[in-house]
Amino acid sequence: MKILCGTDIIEIERIKKAILEHGENFLEEIYTKKEIEYCNSKNNAKYQHFAARFAAKEAIFKAISSLVENKYKLSWKNAEIINDKNGKPNIKLIGINIENSSIDISISHCKEYAVAMCTLIKTN
Ligand SMILES: CC(C)(COP(=O)(O)OP(=O)(O)OC[C@H]1O[C@@H](n2cnc3c(N)ncnc32)[C@H](O)[C@@H]1OP(=O)(O)O)[C@@H](O)C(=O)NCCC(=O)NCCS
Predict the structure, then answer these.
(1) Residues with beta carbon inside 6 Å of ligand 1?
(2) Which atom of ligand 1 approaches the CA of 42 most closely?
(3) How far apart are CA 18 and CA 8, in angstroms?
(4) Rounded Cα distance, 96 and 112, in Å
(5) Angle, vertex CA 71, rays to CA 70 and CA 77, nearest 5
């Protein structure tokens, strides 16, 4: 069994600036439709949630990059973060298959920063 971790921290202001400057182009490059809907539903707090998902995707990249053939082929939308009915975020990998593995993500954000931590367990 192998355990792989990835973590990331980001300044929320950086993501807010990118969204305000590049709008839809930035959002559509980084986030899936469901992620955009989720973050926009948070109204004034939306930048925290967008930043958290940016950090989550970086954390996932760090956890999985050694398991894919070419890490440079990974894109932002290879991973989608969807919250369940209790609010827990889950990862849906899109277009990547990591056999015999289980992956999880944890997210936190405050006024200035968002952090995410991804854990992947591969059984063989
Ligand atoms: C879920 C909870 C712990 C989040 O903590 P918080 O300090 O308010 O907020 P944070 O910024 O640290 O975390 C927010 C993230 O937590 C994650 N989260 C929410 N509910 C979750 C759950 N049930 N399980 C795991 N992660 C959860 C989400 O990813 C959320 O960010 P997102 O909406 O952008 O996806 C809190 O809202 C809550 O419900 N607390 C009541 C229960 C409690 O604190 N019990 C402690 C004693 S057991």
Answers:
(1) 49, 52, 83, 86-89, 107-109
(2) 33
(3) 18
(4) 32
(5) 115
Q: How far is the CA of 69 from the centre of ligand 1 (A)?
A: 34
Domain count, the chain: 1
Q: Which two tokens stand for residue 57?
A: 């995707």
Domain that holds residue 54: 2-122
The CATH number that applies at residue 33 is 3.90.470.20
Mean pLDDT value across residues 96-121: 96
Question: Is the full-model pTM beyond 0.85?
Answer: yes
Instruction: Work out whether the CA dihedral 85, 88, 94, 97 comes out positive or negative.
Output: negative
What number is the average pLDDT over the span 17-22? 97
36 confidence band (pLDDT: 50, 70, 90): very high
At 80, is the secondary structure helix, strand, or coil?
A: strand
